[in-house]
Amino acid sequence: MYSPFELIVIGGGSAGHAAARTAAELGAKTALVESADELGGLCILRGCMPSKALIETANRMRMTREAARFGFRAGEPQLDLPALRERLHRLIDDFRQDRVHAMEKAPYALLRGSARFRSAKEILFQAENSEPRMLEARTFVIATGSLPSVPQVPGLKDTPFWTSDDVVQLPDIPKRIAILGSGAIGMEFAHLFEGFGCAVTVIARGKRIMGNSDPDIAEAMEAESRERGIRFLKETEAESVSHGPDGFRLKLSGETSELTADALLVATGRRPATAGLGLEEIGIAMEKGRILIDERAATSLRCIYAAGDCASPVPVVHLAVLQGEVAARNALLSLRDDHFSSAAEWPRHSAMSGWFTEPQCVQIGLSETAAKEDGIEVIVGRQTYADHGKGMIAGSRHGFVKVLADPASGRLLGAAGIGPDVVETGHLLQAAIEQQLTLSDYLRIPHYHPTLAEAWSRAVEDAKECSG
């Protein structure tokens, strides 16, 4: 058996491409194995880019519908579905072509087929219409991404329900849609369809929506959503689902026992795409299908690294790219017996998550909930947009931003917010947390007036005053 590769990357999405490109540019003989029929990865084909393209249209329709709030008149916006599909497909094709060109021109070998580990240093590679062959490498990076997680609800699998992968293909615009799940995916699509003018019902298992966010963020989001007509059924689960000529019929466990809808979106999260890789057989440490990694993207096996949604505790694209680059650099260090003496790390302490709802939500670094659960003492400073000049101009009703800082040193530890463009302006706080700035350091940064970004400075001022 002969393999010309020092490093093999499994998975050709954002993390995998970043890892393979980085390793090859550093001089390693590298291969990338991709099993998908179409190159491009989740973000481009079925995730970030198509969903945000659709959300942009929904937001503009919503703005037109709310024209009276801003002193002008406009008629009810009419969605041109063929034109929207054409725009969506054109944008995604442009993004895809850029990625395909980058992958085909990259200094690594692109191998189209599936892989399964036979040992920690060899995989069985299976290309279509070819005999399987063994490939050996001194080190590997696993970057196989994630798949929609679908609950085992009686009758569900026999119905034409949608997942997020289906919705971004824009199959139809229903009059009534039910959404199972109130996390990031569920809420983004709730606001997407509300913007399109649909009647939206969100079914949430917990006592509140957005269970992974701070309660004050969730409360503000629910208030804003209800004012726009989104209906929430909390502490409710789907007991069975059926589909007929009149659409979907859901039997529910909560106060509302039955719900009918024209479309059903299952948005109960995503699961790591690790099945079928043979990871259990080689003894790699995992938790609920997710490969466990540290800040160096290292797994429990010295010669195997992992990056992106199959491993990241914060499954977002920019971290997937960073983890892929870190994984490649550290994998090559291990080949040279320079094991972690100068290892790269991905920034767990400043990890950022953004929700493109309306209004947007953002979480950076340490959350207030996590601080309380872990017994970490913090100072919290806040600024509401209703009391902030540009926030008032933008029409924010329930939005706010907040920052968390260490009471002894004043170092910024976390930030969160809900409001207009907080994902965009939140990068200010991500940079500050990454650079370990203190409250005093941040207040030396000038903020243009009037801007939405000023709200973060006011929250820092509030925290500074609280610190005495």
Automatic annotation (TrEMBL):
The keyword Flavoprotein applies. Residues 6-324 form the FAD/NAD(P)-binding domain. Residues 355-459 form the Pyridine nucleotide-disulphide oxidoreductase dimerisation domain. InterPro entries: FAD/NAD-bd_sf, FAD/NAD-binding_dom, FAD/NAD-linked_Rdtase_dimer_sf, Pyr_nuc-diS_OxRdtase, Pyr_nucl-diS_OxRdtase_dimer, Pyr_OxRdtase_I_AS. It comes from the Bacteria. SUPFAM superfamilies: FAD/NAD(P)-binding domain (SSF51905), FAD/NAD-linked reductases, dimerisation (C-terminal) domain (SSF55424). Keywords: Disulfide bond, FAD, Flavoprotein, NADP, Oxidoreductase, Redox-active center. The keyword NADP applies. Belongs to the class-I pyridine nucleotide-disulfide oxidoreductase family. This is NAD(P)/FAD-dependent oxidoreductase. It comes from Luteolibacter rhizosphaerae. The lineage of its organism: Bacteria, Pseudomonadati, Verrucomicrobiota, Verrucomicrobiia, Verrucomicrobiales.
